[in-house]
Design a protein that fits this description.
- With 256 residues, the protein is an alpha/beta fold.
- It has one domain: Metallo-dependent phosphatases (Purple Acid Phosphatase, chain A, domain 2).
- It is built from 8 helices and 11 strands.
- The longest helix is centred in the middle third of the chain and has 15 residues.
- The radius of gyration is 17 Å and the shape is globular.
- The protein starts with a strand and ends with a strand.
- 43% of the residues are buried.
- Bound molecules: fe (ii) ion.
- The site of fe (ii) ion has 7 residues, from loops.
């Protein structure tokens, strides 16, 4: 059984379309989406519609929650200063440019999904098993913390999103994957990322697929709709960057 997991599309329709096209060539039987359809990118409405049309089982990410409920914050761990300004601007823009029906869909998403395939139990959650929307399980999360969040988990395989960093770790007799990010990778590789897990008679193999897409077109759309240019820079670099603490919206000190 070949299963796709993807997440963190963040309003980047070009990246989503490229991933969906790549999936067609991979002999896939099931697809799951681990949330954050919206936020940051220029086409939140179109991304929600595409996922709905395809009827892909989807769980809620912190951005789906923030935009669905029109919250003032996504709960992200931003640095104070310009990073917070960009985050707030993008969140407010996404709230304004997402329909009531799309918001209703985002609010309807479950926090977790569980299923069993060929004797292997899966748990899908955007953040962590104990903090579904906000906790980051990163490659450098301590073993102690990882063990703590897995304490009550009955599944054999946990798949997360949220960090935008593809990852696989082993703890408490369980495999913990992060499926990376379709629309806003942060591991230094700007190509869209998704995860394939192949389960055959309780044995598991996996592959992180990296898919080229038209980054330039997405960056142009970011500018066209009036979103902050820094959002495009993250897509070009495939990672975040440190910004100076400038108060002016037009002055940015990049330290890449
Ligand atoms: Fe995200």
């Amino acid at each position: 059984m070949r299963i796709v997991f993807f997440s963190d599309i963040h309003g980047n329709l070009e990246a989503l379309e490229a991933v969906l096209k790549d999936i067609e060539s991979q002999n896939i039987e099931r697809i799951y989406c681990l949330g954050d359809l919206v936020g940051y990118g220029p086409q939140p409405q179109e991304v929600v519609q595409r996922i709905r049309d395809l009827k892909i089982p989807t769980i809620m990410g912190n951005y789906d929650d923030a935009i669905g409920y029109e919250k003032k914050s996504c709960g992200c761990a931003y640095n104070p200063g310009r990073e917070t300004e960009v985050g707030d601007e993008s969140l407010n823009w996404s709230i304004t440019n997402t329909s009531a029906a799309a918001k209703e869909f985002l609010r309807s998403l479950p926090h977790t999904l569980e299923f069993e395939e060929e004797g292997v139990k899966f748990l899908l959650v955007h953040g962590s098993p104990v903090d579904h929307l906000l906790e980051y399980i990163r490659p450098d999360t301590s073993s102690e913390r990882l063990q703590k969040v897995l304490e009550r988990v009955k599944a054999d395989v946990v798949v997360n999103g949220h960090t935008h960093l593809p990852m696989v770790r082993w703890a408490m007799g369980k495999l913990v994957f992060n499926d990376g990010s379709v629309g806003r990778p942060k591991d230094g590789n700007p190509k869209a990322c998704y995860l394939i897990i192949d389960v055959v008679q309780q044995s598991i193999s996996y592959e992180f697929r990296r898919v080229e897409y038209d980054v330039k077109s997405t960056v142009e759309k970011i500018t066209e709709v009036g979103l902050p240019a820094e959002l495009g820079l993250v897509l070009v670099l495939g990672k975040g960057y440190e910004m100076g603490q400038s108060k002016s919206k037009n002055t940015i000190d990049f330290k890449i």
